[in-house]
Write a structure and sequence with these properties.
single chain, 4 helices, about 45% helix, flat, binds zinc ion
Length: about 110
C-alpha cells in the first residue's frame, strides 16, 4: 500500500527507486495535494527540520488532520457542484474552516 501522493508522483515521474531514507515532501504543505510540481523527494531528516522551521504552519495546523481536511474539501466540492455554486470558493471555505483562529492556542 502506498499513499495517494506517492502513487500520483510515481505515475507522473516514474518509480521512486532511491534507496536512501527519502520522503515525498509537499512544498504547499497540503497533505491531499496531488500536484507533481509540489512534490519532491527529500531526506526524511530535512523534511522534519523544514516542518519544524515553519512551526507546523499552514495546512498542517488544520484541527481536522489531513484526512479530515481532505474529506471536508471533497464534501464541499460535491455540494458546490450539486448546487451550481462556485467550487473554488467552496474549497477555500472548507480549507479555512479547520484552521485555528488568530490567537488560538495550538498545542
Ligand atoms: Zn500542492
Amino acid at each position: 500500500m502506498v499513499s495517494a501522493h506517492v502513487l500520483g508522483y510515481q505515475l507522473a515521474r516514474g518509480l521512486i527507486t532511491e534507496e536512501a531514507d527519502l520522503v515525498l515532501a509537499h512544498s504547499c504543505d497540503e497533505p491531499a495535494c496531488q500536484q507533481p510540481d509540489h512534490l519532491s523527494l527529500v531526506p526524511r531528516r530535512r523534511n522534519g527540520e523544514e516542518c519544524q522551521a515553519r512551526q507546523w504552519s499552514g495546512p498542517l495546523l488544520d484541527a481536522r488532520g489531513p484526512r479530515g481536511r481532505a474529506a471536508a474539501v471533497r464534501e464541499a466540492i460535491l455540494a458546490a457542484r450539486e448546487r451550481g455554486e462556485d467550487v473554488e470558493a467552496a474549497i477555500a471555505a472548507a480549507r479555512s474552516a479547520g484552521m485555528p483562529t488568530p490567537g488560538e492556542r495550538l498545542f
